Amino acid sequence: MSTHTARPSIESARRDAAHFIDGAFTQGATGKSWENHCPLDNSVIGHVPEAGKAEVDAAVTAARAALDGPWGELTVAQRTDMLAAVANEITNRFDDFLAAECLDTGKPYGTASHIDIPRGAANFKMFAETVKNISTETFILDTPDGANALNYGLRRPKGVIAVISPWNLPLLLMTWKVGPALACGNTVVVKPSEETPLTATLLGEVMNKVGVPKGVYNVVHGFGPNSAGEFLTQHPLVNGITFTGETRTGEAIMKQAAVGLRQVSFELGGKNPALVFADCDLDKAVEGTLRSAFANCGQVCLGTERIYVERPIFEAFVARLKAGVEGLRLGRPEEPSTTMGPLVSMEHREKVLSYYKAAVDEGATVVTGGGVPDMPGDLAQGAWVEPTIWTGLGDDARVVNEEIFGPCCHIRPFDTEEEAIRLANSTRYGLAAAVWTENLARAHRVAGKLDVGICWVNSWFLRDLRTAFGGSKQSGIGREGGVHSLEFYTELSNVCIKL
């Protein structure tokens, strides 16, 4: 957690974005661009160039050349020292990254300065240390002729990695992929979300400042179909594809990756449950669920949209969560009192508001929220919605089953542990869950029965970056974190020497 207290003006981050290819910034040759809008007030931040096939090919070709050239010639120690320097330079330019991230997303400084920017830097240091300290297997084999054979494993970089990152935590989730990819000796071509292009572009300046060879880190901007995303995933020199985003988009990328048999690593959608048992610490459960359902305006892949509360404490929990939600303060990122920003875009706001309407149409009781807040001045033009709680819906309701990705949740009572587990698992997703109980045996028992990639007990978003992270069912393929990231970003070779 950062101790940084400066609050730079987000106005300093207004600029046009650019591709970063082979160590140089360029607007490309397509002549196509789009306006990047700030979700706070829908004002224009600047313009973003759209990459065509030529720009994507130039980026991938540069990445391949760096892999075969200067980057591939570095020792592990040299490479990881350079990545530590990248992390330090992100910290040195903390204010620049903070302003850019908050301008693109509208999130409060209090959130980005404690989570997004520090984690963006930490991802490089952590994976550099992991690569330096991880071992591979070694075996001695007795052969029929009485000799021995020594077998040992070698990890080699996979090659050129396509990194397609989301808009909700732009720097954090992009470096969560770029950090281990580069630590393992790969090179990357990043396509950030079209909604949040600034910090991925800014990282190019950091790479040049610390002397990362040209072509190791590249950025191309664009959209998905018939744009930079599709051109990148189709490129024959791309050896692996890592993506965080919607399940539907992951399915489309997987089809592209099948041509040439490229491996994929996906962290996809979720409809995450929280199970609140009557034996919980109610103060902690309410506080934790307030975070898990409403942090980052609900735009967190690990966030809680389904809350199941044991009946004896149901009414008390609903009342206390309602009070917590109504204590949230919507406002500009720089204001110390702000605890919630807007959604990422006006388009996403329309999606979330359509679910707000659907909930009412299906008979929900609106405990709080459910509409658009009155915002002062220019903020009235921004992508704001009210944080919202519903009760009273059936298990087949749309807002109970479909990922909304907004500041909202539905709360339903349950009567038995078995019922709670059944309700939690009744989804096509399987990303994360939270369990609130002071019963140690129940904590272990329930956590082991939930079909999720990560289960928090009496906490939420408490991350040890060495542990496996990813989803089951339609929430993803593969795992990231610690050695698990190395499994994707390297090819493991066995060397057998007869002694």
Provide tags for this entry.
499 residues, alpha/beta, Aldehyde Dehydrogenase, Chain A, domain 1, Aldehyde Dehydrogenase, Chain A, domain 2, six-stranded mixed sheet, 16 helices, 22 strands, 38% helix, globular, disordered N terminus
Question: Topology, please?
Answer:
Layout: E1 19-21, E2 24-26, E3 33-37, E4 44-49, H1 53-68, H2 70-73, H3 76-92, H4 94-105, H5 109-133, E5 138-142, E6 148-157, E7 160-164, H6 170-183, E8 187-191, H7 198-210, E9 217-219, H8 228-234, E10 240-244, H9 247-258, E11 263-267, E12 272-276, H10 282-294, E13 304-310, H11 314-326, H12 346-361, E14 365-368, E15 388-391, H13 398-401, E16 408-414, H14 417-425, E17 429-430, E18 432-436, H15 440-447, E19 454-457, E20 472-473, E21 476-477, H16 482-489, E22 490-498
Parallel strand pairs: 7-8, 7-10, 8-9, 10-11, 12-13, 12-18, 13-16, 15-16, 18-19
Antiparallel strand pairs: 1-2, 3-4, 5-6, 6-22, 11-21, 14-15, 17-20
Helix pairs in contact: 3-5, 3-7, 4-5, 5-6, 10-11
- Going across the biggest sheet, name each strand in turn: 14-15-16-13-12-18-19
Question: So, CATH architecture of the largest domain?
Answer: 3-Layer(aba) Sandwich
Helix content: 25-40%
Count the DSSP helices.
Answer: 16
Please give the CATH class of the largest domain. Answer: Alpha Beta
User: What percent of residues are in strands?
Assistant: 15-25%
For this structure, the CATH topology of the largest domain is: Aldehyde Dehydrogenase, Chain A, domain 1
Q: Can you tell me the number of structural domains?
A: 2
CATH level-4 homologous superfamily of the largest domain: Aldehyde Dehydrogenase, Chain A, domain 1
**Average predicted confidence as pLDDT:** 96
Major β-sheet annotation: 7 strands, mixed
pLDDT < 50 stretches = 1-5
